[in-house]
Design brief:
By secondary structure, the protein is mainly alpha-helical. It has a domain of about 110 residues. The chain has six helices and two strands. A two-stranded parallel ribbon has the order 1-2.
C-alpha cells in the first residue's frame, strides 16, 4: 500500500513536497502626519534684556522729573484746608515711605527701587484722583494732566520690572 502513496523513485528516498510560496502581508497604511503647529505657539519667549544700576538710576531721574511736573501742575488750594479723614493720613504716610525708599533705592541703583517707585506713583495717582472729591481743589484741566503724570509714574517702573531682568553681577 505504501507503493501507491509514494511517488516512484529509483533510490527509495522520499522527496519533500514543494513549499508553498510565502505570502507577504500588504504594506501598512501610511500614518497621517499631524498638522503643523502654529508659529505663535512654538515661538520661544524673547530673552529679557538686563537692567543695570545705571538704567535704574535713569528711571529714578525720570520719576523725579515727572514728580516735579506733577507739582508744577497743581494749583494752590481753593480755600481753607478741609478736614481730611484719618485714612488719608495713612495714605500720605505710605506715599512718603515709598518716596523715601525709592529715593534710597534709585541712588544705590537697586532693582527693588522700581517696586518702591511704582508704589509711590500709585499713591500719588490715588491722592490725585481723590483731590476733587475731598474739596481740596476744584476739578479743572490741571487735574487731568496730574492724573496722566501719576499714571506714567506707575507704568514706567512697573514696565521696567516686567520687561527686564536683573543684570548679572560681574
Amino acid at each position: 500500500m505504501t507503493a501507491i502513496l509514494e511517488p516512484p523513485t529509483t533510490t527509495g528516498r522520499v522527496e519533500p513536497a514543494p513549499a508553498e510560496p510565502a505570502v507577504t502581508p500588504p504594506p501598512p497604511a501610511p500614518v497621517p502626519k499631524p498638522p503643523p503647529v502654529a508659529a505663535a505657539r512654538t515661538r520661544q519667549p524673547r530673552a529679557r534684556p538686563p537692567l543695570t544700576a545705571t538704567g535704574i538710576r535713569v528711571i529714578g531721574t525720570a520719576l523725579a522729573g515727572l514728580f516735579t511736573v506733577g507739582l508744577v501742575l497743581e494749583p494752590p488750594p481753593d480755600g481753607a484746608d478741609p478736614v481730611l479723614p484719618a485714612w488719608i493720613g495713612v495714605l500720605e504716610t505710605g506715599v512718603t515711605v515709598a518716596l523715601l525708599a525709592s529715593i534710597a533705592g534709585f541712588l544705590l541703583g537697586r532693582r527693588w527701587a522700581l517696586g518702591a517707585g511704582a508704589a509711590f506713583g500709585a499713591g500719588l495717582l490715588t491722592a490725585s484722583a481723590l483731590c476733587p472729591t475731598l474739596d481740596h481743589h476744584v476739578l479743572a484741566g490741571w487735574w487731568f494732566g496730574q492724573l496722566a503724570v501719576a499714571a506714567v509714574m506707575v507704568a514706567l517702573p512697573a514696565a521696567a520690572l516686567a520687561l527686564t531682568r536683573r543684570a548679572e553681577e560681574t
